[in-house]
Each structure stands twice: as structure tokens, then as C-alpha cells.
Model the fold of this input.
Amino acid sequence: MRNLPLKKQFAASGASFSERYGTEIVSQCSGYEQEYHYVRDAAGMTDFSFMQKFTVPEESGIDFLDSLFAGNVAKTRFGRVLHTFLPDGNGNLVADCYIANNDEEYVVLCESIADDRVTRDIFTKNNTAGVTDLSETHVVIGLDGYKAWAVVKELFGADVLGLPYLSIERYDFEGTGIRLFRAGKTSEFGYLIMAPVEIGAALFNKLLELVKKQNGGLCGSLTHDSLRLEGRFFNIFSEGARVKDPLPLGLQWMIDFDKDAFTGRDALMERRTAGLKTKIVGVNAGKGDDALKAGSPVFDGAERIGEIVTTCFSYILDATLGLALLRSDVAFAGLEFRGGEPGGRIINTISMPPIMPKSLTVKLDEM
Amino acid sequence: MTETVRVAIEKRSAVINTFKDELIRRLNLPYTPQDLHEDVSLLGAGLGLDSLDALEIVLCIENCFGIKIPDQNTSVLRSINTVVDFVLQEQAKKVQQ
Done:
């Protein structure tokens, strides 16, 4: 297992740890409810160092990356970040990735459901493109929340507020260059800071000080999983790992169907042409101790029409939310089905995202 | 499929299909209607449309369904499904009047 370079710092703050596909992750810090409110009301700081991280020179990188990824790397403008996925030969999900066009290099960040070593081998084996694996030499710290912008503004200056969503910029921290991604999957302001491990501890301490100033704190990956679902961002570790096929998951927007070739393209095109048999849809299961869990069947009358693939508790809605993989002819919002058994708990299919994040109400002149 | 579900799907599908077709045509999106999941984010993440595209979507809704989106109600444009909810809600209001 690949260990986290910032484990000591997170452990000192009471964090618990677990393993996910061959890497260590910070599972939880102060508990779900507290961490949830850090992000929705203030700022949450999460260790994303478990991600696989690579750089590739621009010259040799475009063709190499375009041969792997479903999205179009060549069309990604300077300073921008492409959000796409790494498929296997059958067009199924291996990793959810950000690919940043950063001056003379591409920076790749992956969240993978293949073993860490296997994922890294995809990039570094027969390394003709000049890939550098930064997975063990760099940390990635995530800042998400309604006030996350205030943290990065204090650290890097006001021009950071001009960064559009899905962009990258270089900054200095105590004389060392770091890469700042404006990205996030909670629907609040989000940033990923990638820095060499040598300055990891100092960066952690400074960021935590600034996060606490905004009444925020540390978050674990498990809380992040729930926040992603509530904001209806794709999560490869929950619905991705369970379903694997990107098409029923609605990830067509991550694919450039006009690209001539990439891993798994033929299989994906074949399934696209055949049409979807199942499709993911949001559900609200209300409140209660018997709230639905992943794997619970869903019924229309006596007929089984699918199953729940992931759930979370939303404090904003005071309800259990989820995603269900349903037969595509009934996978629509605004319907009432039953969960668990025919005549069981009422679940309503809903339009996603179901919440209005506070970050969408922030105006530039208030920042 | 139960009758209640069938009727609800028919009504929703009509709005979804009209909106998706028009969205693809107006914004020249490289997708088929089947490629567009109804929960996909329209602005920022997902389809990654910008503020000019947002104006086009507002016009699209106005032309297709005769419904205006109030200036301050940008939350309607978060996904295809949130647009469809708004259209169905406004259509229901018109019927009641």
C-alpha cells in the first residue's frame, strides 16, 4: 500500500485511515456532520495525496494522453483542465482524471479503481512519452467550501479569484513552486494544491491555520463521497466502482466521440449504438433509520426495475439521497417507486443536483 | 410499468425531447439527445457551457415553451432536469389560470 506523506499531520488531528485500491486514505477526521458543515458553511481541507499524479512534456504528451483518455487532450487550451476518464479495453472505467495543460507540460491527477501500482504502470511502463510519476514525491491538498476562496486568496493573493473552474496556475509557497487547480466536486468553491512532499508539512500547517480562521477544519474522504453525491458530481469510488460502464452513468460529456482512437473506444461506440438498457437517476428516500442502502432493489408495483447504487445523508434536505440504476424506460425524475420490496419504503426519483450550494450565491464584489 | 408512472413519463419526456433537440441544435453540441443525461450540469462542470451559452438556453426555453426565466433565477439552469422541472411547473400554473 502507498502511504500518505501527511499521515502524521492528519493523525495528530485525530484522523482515521483506511485503504482504497492500494493507497492509504484519510477516512474521517471529526465525524460526518461536522465535516459536512465545514464544507457547506465554511472550508474543509482534505488530503487527496492518494491520487496518482503525473507530468508529461507537452511535445510527447498529447498523442500519448489522447491514446489513453476518452476526452480530447489536444483540444484542451493552455491553463485549462480537462475532466475525463481513463477507460480499459472494454470501455469501462479505470480512473476519473483531471488533465491540465500547464505551459510546457500536462499534469494528470487520477482517482483510480484499479490498484495503485496497476494504474501507475499504465502511464510509466514502456515510457516513450517521458512521463514522470509524482505519486510519491508530491502531496495534493484539497480545499472545498463556501469560504475556500478566502483561504487561497490569503495565501496566493486576490488574482486567484479570477481563475475559472477547471483551470491551473503556478504559485509560489515559501520559495517553492506549487500547482493550483481550480477544481472540485462538492459544488462549493474547490481547489487542489499540488506541492513537493518536502514542503508538504509546512503547507499543511499554513492551510490549516487559514481554514480554521474561516471556521473550517479537516475532512475525510468519506465525507467527500457524500458531498459529491449531494452536489451530483460523479464519484468513481461509489457509483463508478459499482456500475463501471460510463454510459449508464451519464458520462458521455467526458467522451469525445469524434476522436479516431483511444483505449476502449470501439466497445463504447458499440454500446452507444445499441442504446442504453439502464440509466442512473437521483432518488430521495426521505428520513428514517431504515433508509435505503447501496444494493437495495427498487420496485414499480410488483416489478423490480433496478437497484440503489449509492446513498448519503443530506443535512440540507434532512433526507437520504441516492442514485439508482434503473431500467432506462423508467429512469426519469418525478416518479414514485418503492425500495427494498414491493410496497416497501417510498422513494422518489428526483432532479439532480437537489441542493443550491451557498457558493453559487457569492458575488465577486463580496470576495 | 404502472399507469401512473407511464403518464408521468410521457409528460416529462415530451419536454425533455424538445429541450434536448433544441439545445443541441442551437449550441451545436457534438452529442445525440441520448448522449445527454438529464442530470448533466449545463454550466461549468459537465457540458461546460459559458455565460453566452446560458443566454442562448434562456432564449431556447422562451421559444420552445413560451416561458420566461426570471433574471435572478439562475438556479433553473443547473441541469436539463432542473430546466424541465421549471417548464413543467410553469405549464401547470398556466393550466390552473
Notes: Chain A has a mean pLDDT of 96. Chain A touches chain B through 36 residues (CB under 8 Å).
